[in-house]
Amino acid sequence: MTPASTGASPRVDAGPPAPSSDTAPPVPPGSPVRDTRLAPGGPGYRRMSFALFLAGVATFALLYSTQALLPLISGDLGASAGEASWTVAAATGGLALFVLPMSALSERFGRRTVMTASLAVAVGVGVLVPFAPSLGTLVALRAVQGAALAGLPASATAYLAEEVRPRALVTAIGLFVAGNSVGGMSGRVVTGWVAQEWGWRVAVGVIGAIAVGCAVAFRLLLPAPRHFTAGSLRPRVLLGTVRDHLADPLLRRLYAIGALFMTVFGGVYTVIGYRLTEAPFSLPQGIVGSVFLVYLVGTVSASAAGRLVGRLGRRGALYLAGGTTAAGLLLSLAGPLLPVLLGLLLITAGFFAGHAVASSAVGKTAAHGRAQAAALYQSAYYIGSSAGSTVGATAFRAVGWSGTVGVGVLAVLGVVAVTALDSRAARAAARREPATAH
User: Fold this and answer.
1) Which of 181, 184, 160, 175 is nearest to 362 (CA)?
2) pLDDT for res 380
3) Which of 1, 26, 96, 420 has the fewest CB atoms within 10 Å of its CB?
4) CB of 268 within 8 A of CB of 64?
5) pLDDT for the residue numbered 338
6) Close Cβ partners of 406 (under 8 Å, ≥ 6 residues apart)
7) 38 phi and psi angles, rounded to 5 deg
8) How far is residue 138's CA from residue 140's CA, in Å, rounded to a whole number?
C-alpha cells in the first residue's frame, strides 16, 4: 500500500513507524485484493457516519458558542460589537493557525487519536469559559479552544478519504458538514434561550456539557481505521507536502473558494444578532437564538451536495451555491422581518452546499498527504471566518447592515470569479490533452 493510496505523507525516515492503534494491519502476501473501505449499507458505515456527525456537532457548537450571545457579552463586559466579535474571531483564528500542525500529528499518530485528543482539550477549556472575568481572558480561552479544535476538521476529512469508497466520499463528507450545521444551529438556539433566562455564562456552560456527551459518544462509535499508514513528523517532509499542495492550481482555487464562502457566512452570522436585537426589530435573545434554526436548511443542502455534483458537475454546483448565497444577501436588505429570514435561509443553503462541494473536491484532488491538503483548506476556510467576523462587524458599525451585505457580495463575486478561472483552466487542459497524448 503506497502513501498515494492512503493519503499519508511520503515516508523518508528509516525504520518502522511508531506503533499506533490507528495504523492499518499488514496485508498477508498472496492475499486476494479487495476493497475493504466503508460503503453505504456496509458494516461500520452507519457508526462512522454518526460518530463524525457528532464530532461535527461538538466542533461547531463549541467554536461558535459565543456568536449568538455577542450583544449580551457586549453589555456585560462593556465591549463594542467589533471588540466582542473577537470572541468568535479568536477561536476561528486559533483553529486556522493550528490546523496544519495538528494534521501533521494525525499523519504520525492517527486520525482517530488526534480527533479524540482535540475534543478532550476543547471540552476541558469549555468548562473554564463561563468563568472568564474579562473580555481579554475570554478571548484568550477562546483562542486556545479553537487551536484544540484544529485537530478535528482536517483529520476527519482525511479519515473519510482513506476509509470510505470514492463514490461515497462526497456524501460522507456532506454528512460531516451536516453535523457542523446542526452543531452551529443547536448551539445558537440553546444559548439564546438559556441566556435569556440565566445569562451568557450559563449558556456557554450548557454548550460545554453537550460537547462532552458528543465527544464520549464519538470515541465509542468511530470504527478503528484500517487504511491508515503512519508518516513522518520531519519538518522537511511536512513542508514538501505543503509546497506540493500549494503548487497545485486546482487546490489553490478550492482553498480560495472555501475562504470566500466563509467570509460571507462569518460576517452575516456574527452581526445578525445585533441587527435583530436593535430597532426596528428589537427581538428578545431567545427569539434571536431561534433564528439559527435556519441552519437546518444547511444540513439538507450539505447532505445533497453529492447529488448536486452528480447533476451539475463541481463547477455548476459551485455556481448554484454562489448564486443562492448572493440572492440571500440581497433579500436580507429588505425592511420587514420575513424577507430578512428568507435571506438568511438562502445564505445558509448556499454556503453549506458550496463548502461541502469544495471540501470534498480537496480530498479527491490530493494525491498524497490528504490531511495536509484538508488542513490547508480548513486554514483558508477559518481565516475567511475570522476575516468575515471582524470586517463584517466593522462594516456594520460604520454603515449598518448594508455594509455587512456589501462585504458578503464582494466575497461571492470572488467565488464566481475563481470558479470561472477553474472552468477556463479545465477547458485549456482539455484542448492540450490530444496534443500531449502521443
Assistant:
1) 160
2) 92
3) 26
4) no
5) 94
6) 395
7) -75, 145
8) 5
The CA-CA-CA angle for residues 117, 120, 125, to 5°, reads 125
Residue 38's SS3 state is strand
The phi and psi torsions of 260 (rounded to 5 degrees) equal -70, -40
Rg (CA), the chain: 21
Using pLDDT thresholds of 50, 70 and 90, give the confidence band for residue 218: very high
| Matching residue, cell 455594509 | 403
When pLDDT is averaged across residues 356-381 and rounded to a whole number, the result is: 84
| Alpha carbon separation from 234 to 12, 112, 113, 243, 369 (Å, rounded) | 9, 21, 19, 14, 13
Considering only residues 186 and 415, tell me which one the structure prediction assigns the higher pLDDT. Answer: 415
Contact of 348 with 298, CB cutoff 8 Å: yes
Mean pLDDT of 201-222: 93
Concatenate the DSSP letters of all residues of 188-244 into one string: HHHHHHHHHHH-HHHHHHHHHHHHHHHHHHHHHHSPPPSS-------HHHHHHHHHH
Q: Is the peptide bond before 434 cis (omega within 30 degrees of 0)?
A: no
Spatial contact of 357 and 174, defined as CB atoms under 8 Å apart: no
43-219+233-431: what CATH class?
mainly alpha
User: How far apart are alpha carbons 435 and 428 in whole angstroms?
Assistant: 12
Q: Name the pLDDT band for 14 (thresholds 50, 70, 90).
A: very low
